[in-house]
């Protein structure tokens, strides 16, 4: 169904009216014969018919196309009253922006957000209603922290509620302690593995240093032995020189 033509300010071109409901086009589609319809109207028509309701030419859903751009622009520029006019809203805006306004309109009827409440109230009065709604949630006046939702809840046992709350807090604390414990154990295991790995690396480096030192000592001994041999040869050469 289209927009009620009585909501519009000023003259509305005949070409912007739905050929079926005769109201201003809503979500329009156009047939090959250039007659325009509201999407809901033409889909409903084609369930029982296979022709255009204006000139009886054969049409099919697959042949329907969006409205021409210039017609769409003319449609969007039309000025109309908010649907909540009868409730006091005086807003007049373009068809293009009317949906956005009506979603936020202070005069729109909206349901109470409290579970169980069936009251429909204007958005601007919602806060006042929530403050006195019989389905609103509120805490026990005795200070136990219990949330009162219904009249029967006012007869609750504060001591029992406090015990329940204490048990919940104790369970939550135990869970948190266990989580902290597991986290610390995980960190310690990770650090322990890291230290073992570092120890293994250091041990390998120490063994490598020992091996290098052993090779160096062996080289030193070889050099010392070579030096003694060289000295002995020099002494022998000296003796032979004296004898000569």
UniProtKB/TrEMBL annotation:
Residues in domain TRAF-type? Answer: 101-144
UniProt signal peptide: none
Occurrences of domain RING-type (ranges): 18-56
Q: Which UniProt keywords apply?
A: Coiled coil, Metal-binding, Zinc, Zinc-finger
Q: Which stretches does the record call TRAF-type zinc fingers?
A: 101-144
Output this protein's name. Answer: E3 ubiquitin-protein ligase NRDP1
* Coiled-coil intervals, chain numbering: 192-243
The portions of this protein that span the membrane are: none
Q: What PROSITE patterns does this protein's entry cite?
A: ZF_RING_1, ZF_RING_2, ZF_TRAF
Q: Which GO terms label this protein's molecular function in UniProt?
A: zinc ion binding
Gene3D superfamilies xrefs: Zinc/RING finger domain, C3HC4 (zinc finger) (3.30.40.10)
């Amino acid at each position: 169904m289209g927009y009620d033509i009585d909501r519009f300010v000023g003259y509305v071109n005949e070409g912007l009216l739905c050929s079926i409901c005769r109201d201003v086009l809503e979500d329009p589609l156009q047939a090959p014969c250039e007659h325009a319809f509201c999407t809901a109207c033409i889909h409903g028509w084609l369930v029982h018919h296979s022709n255009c309701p204006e000139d009886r030419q054969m049409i099919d859903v697959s042949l329907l196309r969006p409205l021409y751009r210039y017609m769409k622009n003319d449609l969007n520029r039309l000025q109309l009253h908010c649907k909540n006019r009868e409730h006091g809203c005086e807003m007049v805006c373009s068809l293009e922006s009317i949906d956005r306004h009506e979603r936020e309109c202070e005069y729109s009827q909206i349901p109470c957000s409290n579970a169980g409440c069936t009251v429909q109230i204007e958005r601007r009065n919602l806060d006042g209603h929530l403050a006195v709604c019989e389905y609103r949630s509120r805490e026990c006046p005795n200070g136990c922290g219990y949330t009162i939702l219904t009249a029967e809840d006012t007869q609750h046992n504060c001591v029992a509620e406090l015990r329940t709350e204490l048990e919940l807090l104790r369970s939550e604390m135990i869970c948190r302690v266990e989580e902290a414990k597991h986290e610390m154990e995980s960190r310690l295991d990770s650090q322990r593995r890291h230290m073992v790995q570092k120890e293994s690396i250091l041990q390998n480096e120490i063994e490598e240093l020992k091996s290098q030192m052993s090779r160096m000592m062996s080289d030193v001994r070889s050099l010392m032995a070579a030096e003694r041999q060289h000295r002995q040869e020099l002494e022998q050469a000296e003796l032979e020189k004296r004898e000569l």
